[in-house]
Amino acid sequence: MKAQTLKNIGAGFLPRAHLLKRERSYQPLRASSEQPPEAAGPRFRSKILVLGFYLLLFTVWQLIFVFHFVPDYIFPSPWQVGKRLWELATDGYLWPSIKATLTRMLIGYMIALGIGIGVGLLMGLSVIANRCMKSLFLGLQTLPTAAWVPISLLIFGLSDKGIFFVIIMSAAPAVAIATSDGILQIPPIYLRAARTLGTPRYAMPLRVVFPAALPSIVTGIKLGWTLGWHGAVSAELIKSSVGLGFLLSMGRELNDAPQVVGIMLLTIAFGLLLDRFLFGLLEAQLRRRRGLTKE
Amino acid sequence: MVAPVPTEKASNQEAILTVENVSKRFVSGKQQVAAVNNVSLTVYPGEFVVFVGPSGCGKSTLLNMIAGFEKPSEGQILVLDQPVTRPHPDRLMMFQEHALFPWLNVIQNVTYGLRWKYRFKPRFRRQRGRELLKMIHLEEFEKARVHELSGGMKQRAALARALAPDPKILLIDEPFPALDALTRQKLYGDLQEIFTQTRKTIVSITHDMREAACLGDRVFIFTGRPGQIRSELKIDLPRPRDLNDPKVAEYAQVLMKELEDDSSEEKAASLHPQLPTLT
């Protein structure tokens, strides 16, 4: 009886259509040259559904504004937000800010990746390093990204270096932990196969360990991107005169709700865009090559 | 009826693999568990040797020790008079799972073991890879990803990868376990063909008596834990052998009997005088 109920609940919550579709698309034997049949219809329909969902969301937003459930000065309409963003863009505030944030992010994130993957490899390959550093990095990861801002102010003052510092400290632990976990979860059979095939010790990290752990590392660098992005905007809130975070705090100082909401939306959009297109495509490619998904 | 044959084969020949009084004990908690107990055997070049025994009889442990993944607690293993200390492509191991690397395509997998021996000869590596793929009839799948191959194709690719560095001894841990009967039978044919062509020394493990009788020149029968060699059976049938050949079945039956008698202390040879001699 209980099992039955649980089963029913499960059935309600699981994306069954999605699972069924995957199940049907399973093809055990296919030469690489053959392409799976195109399924343009359902994909197109789901795009329309997603579009409809966002239209509904904006309509509800507009309705809340129209019926004055919340005072106007703290709750702008989508129209006001769009207008304010347009003004910021035409006044020449927006573009330099986006550029500044993305540039900082690029530099800080690259350094974070280098450190994170390097430390992760070390932690994955050396038991001692893992024992020593695992708890430290887990601890660092629990620290909210904004908590790095005060210390960066103390060390670096108001310079851009502090923002890099916050990005690195936010992103690197996640990348390091994902990398080391990925390494520790490598099926031992790959390591044995590599050794019996004569892989010299020095070549193991690059030829076997890194590629075997890559799916997990990609998950880590995705998470690192998100956390680094948090860090960048948090740091800019306080210590910058240009950047998305700066525009946010400027909006607050001017009591400009449309600007605050607009920049928030923009921050989400950029984070999402890069996550989807840069890392999403990378991950999809990787999974396809390894046969982890069949589309 | 199969004629009795002496097991003292070609003792004038130089041994390629010598296992001398090897024992292996694992520590589990405070207890020591003996996995292999005082095993000695000799393998000559060009032989196909099969270990059979009940599961958990330490035959895998012995194979791992020959490959160099584990060290014997006592005794020593010599390959061409050199003691085994660590894994080396001269004693190449094929695993129960195909263990092909998913980050490489088929030909990259097959040529993987050549990378260090022929570092600056990429064209040679590629050429050798193609030859091997041709030998196992996978030449059309050169650029395919591992997951695109069927189970049997994966095992064949794994076999090609193992043969690529030209090992002195090929160690096979359960050849082709997770496959359907038809594919397995075909693979036994391929393996025997490769064996007769290349005259490689092969040491293999199985718990399938039919398989042991079909593939092996000599079969070592292991007792249950701790693993000890109970007896040895020489299988003197011409190759290629078919899995369903009645003579193979006959040998398989002898092996089966021998294993079933494991609990009794008496020698099987005296119990079954009408069957091929066991020593």
Biggest protein-protein interface?
A-B, 25 and 33 residues
Q: Would you list the SSEs of chain B in sequence order as H and E?
A: EEEHEEEHHHEHEHEEHH
| Total strand segments of chain B | 10
User: Quick one: how many beta strands of chain A?
Assistant: 0
Report the uncertain regions of chain A. 1-15, 28-35
Rg of chain B, rounded, reads 19 Å
Helical residue percent band of chain A: over 70%
Low-confidence stretches of chain B: 1-10, 264-275
Residue fraction in strands of chain B: 15-25%
| Morphology of chain A | globular
Write the topology of this structure.
The complex is a heterodimer of chains A (about 300) and B (about 280).
Chain A: H1 2-13, H2 16-24, H3 40-66, H4 78-90, H5 94-125, H6 127-142, H7 148-156, H8 160-184, H9 188-196, H10 204-239, H11 244-253, H12 257-290
Helix pairs in contact in A: 4-12, 5-6, 5-8, 5-10, 5-11, 6-8, 7-8, 8-10, 9-10, 10-11, 10-12, 11-12
Chain B: E1 17-28, E2 31-43, E3 48-52, H1 59-67, E4 74-79, E5 82-83, E6 91-94, H2 106-110, H3 122-135, H4 151-163, E7 169-173, H5 181-198, E8 201-206, H6 209-215, E9 218-222, E10 229-234, H7 246-260, H8 268-271
Parallel strand pairs in B: 3-8, 3-9, 6-7, 7-8
Antiparallel strand pairs in B: 1-2, 1-4, 4-5, 9-10
Q: What does this entry look like structurally?
A:
The complex is a heterodimer of chains A (295) and B (279). With 295 residues, chain A is mainly α. Helices cover 79% and strands 0% of the residues of chain A. The relative contact order of chain A is 0.11. Chain B has a six-stranded mixed sheet, with helices on both faces. In chain B, helix 3 crosses helix 4 (151-163) and helix 6 packs across helix 7 (246-260). The longest helix of chain B has 18 residues, at 181-198. Classes of the chains: A mainly alpha (295), B alpha/beta (279). The interface between A and B is medium-sized, with 25 and 33 residues.
